[in-house]
Automatic annotation (TrEMBL):
<keyword id="KW-0472">Membrane</keyword>
<dbReference type="GO" id="GO:0005886">
    <property type="term" value="C:plasma membrane"/>
</dbReference>
<feature type="transmembrane region" description="Helical">
    <location>
        <begin position="214"/>
        <end position="238"/>
    </location>
</feature>
<protein>
    <recommendedName>
        <fullName>Formate/nitrite transporter</fullName>
    </recommendedName>
</protein>
<feature type="compositionally biased region" description="Low complexity">
    <location>
        <begin position="290"/>
        <end position="301"/>
    </location>
</feature>
<feature type="transmembrane region" description="Helical">
    <location>
        <begin position="17"/>
        <end position="36"/>
    </location>
</feature>
<dbReference type="GO" id="GO:0015499">
    <property type="term" value="F:formate transmembrane transporter activity"/>
</dbReference>
<feature type="region of interest" description="Disordered">
    <location>
        <begin position="258"/>
        <end position="307"/>
    </location>
</feature>
<dbReference type="InterPro" id="IPR023271">
    <property type="entry name" value="Aquaporin-like"/>
</dbReference>
<feature type="transmembrane region" description="Helical">
    <location>
        <begin position="95"/>
        <end position="122"/>
    </location>
</feature>
<dbReference type="Pfam" id="PF01226">
    <property type="entry name" value="Form_Nir_trans"/>
</dbReference>
<dbReference type="InterPro" id="IPR000292">
    <property type="entry name" value="For/NO2_transpt"/>
</dbReference>
<keyword id="KW-0812">Transmembrane</keyword>
<feature type="transmembrane region" description="Helical">
    <location>
        <begin position="175"/>
        <end position="194"/>
    </location>
</feature>
<feature type="transmembrane region" description="Helical">
    <location>
        <begin position="142"/>
        <end position="163"/>
    </location>
</feature>
<feature type="transmembrane region" description="Helical">
    <location>
        <begin position="56"/>
        <end position="74"/>
    </location>
</feature>
<dbReference type="InterPro" id="IPR024002">
    <property type="entry name" value="For/NO2_transpt_CS"/>
</dbReference>
Length: 307
């Protein structure tokens, strides 16, 4: 919930928030290009491990978002809903965050696709072939299929974000991100921001149109909202309502408590010392000693007379 409050404050500076959301779009694009580059040759060789490899490498995208710090629309579906249901933020804050993160994410994915187009990384070869295959598969899905797959996708993504915040070590955080993202990619679920990146790459390559992107987002964005806001945030808020668990759901991980330390340690007592030690008594001395008796002096000597 505290994270939702921070997001609501951050959006008061639209430029800063949009840049953060654009970075998230770029990071998702990096994951897409990595996936196309690694799994493309496997697709060309008709390998059965294509889905497995796609799921193994794409989690790099969300790992960058979580560790580097960026604002991804799909995770905000959970975070802001938690904050609003807990009355720490408002529905207006939630709508503002969702709208600005969508705009920022789309801008970031388009910007990254233009750079990749200039670099020619997925212009031809197995990567371009896999890109075309993925786009063709998404274009034939019905609106109901897109919505349901998007709902399941963001349930897994938001669980990844939630578990990330509930662990303390970096290794555990990375693993908690990897598991759900691997599950949604390998299962073929629909992530609206990943689709923004995929269709943007296709538009730059001439393999898709803006209309294709708009049609996909019309169903995947609402599906992602339901998956994050209802299946994760709403469900856990309701089940933990009135307990302390609901507070930890989207908070920064709780720090381990330190043992209490007294402000001033108790000093060991020292033996009492008299202020002035008792002096040994000396023998009494008379102030004036008795005078020694002198012998009596003879009287004046006798005078001899003449005879």
């Amino acid at each position: 919930m505290d994270l939702a409050v921070k997001k609501a404050r951050l959006v008061r500076s639209p430029a800063r928030y949009l840049v953060s959301a654009m970075l998230a779009g770029v990071y998702i694009g990096i994951g897409e290009v990595l996936m196309l580059s690694v799994a493309g040759p496997l697709e060309a060789g008709h390998s059965g491990a294509v889905k497995l490899v796609e799921g193994m490498v794409f989690p790099v995208a969300l790992t960058l978002v979580m560790f580097a710090g960026a604002d991804l629309f799909t995770s905000q579906c959970m975070t802001m809903t938690f904050g609003t249901l807990s009355r720490r933020t408002t529905w207006l804050d939630t709508a503002r965050i969702w709208g600005m993160s969508l705009v920022g994410n789309l801008t970031g994915t388009v910007f990254f696709a233009l750079i990749i187009g200039a670099a020619g990384t997925v212009k031809s070869g197995p990567s371009a072939a896999l890109l075309g295959s993925l786009l063709a598969a998404k274009e034939v899905e019905t609106g109901g299929q897109l919505f349901a797959r998007a709902m399941l996708c963001n349930m897994l993504v938001c669980l990844a974000v939630w578990m990330f915040t509930r662990t303390t070590s970096d290794g555990a955080k990375a693993f908690m991100v990897w598991i759900p993202v691997f599950a949604f990619v390998s299962s073929g679920f629909e992530h609206s921001i990943a689709n923004m990146s995929l269709f943007s790459l296709g538009i730059v390559n001439g393999q898709a149109s803006v209309g294709d992107l708009a049609h996909n987002l019309a169903f995947t964005v609402p599906g992602n909202i339901v998956g994050g806001a209802v299946l994760v945030a709403g469900a856990y808020w309701f089940s933990n309502r009135g307990t302390s668990k609901s507070v930890k759901a989207v908070d920064v991980p709780e720090q381990p408590s330190l043992p209490a330390v007294d402000t001033v340690p108790e000093q060991p007592s020292l033996p009492a010392v008299d202020t002035v030690p008792e002096q040994p008594s000396l023998p009494a001395v008379d102030t004036v000693p008795d005078e020694l008796p002198l012998p009596a002096a003879d009287p004046a000597p006798r005078t001899l007379t003449a005879v």
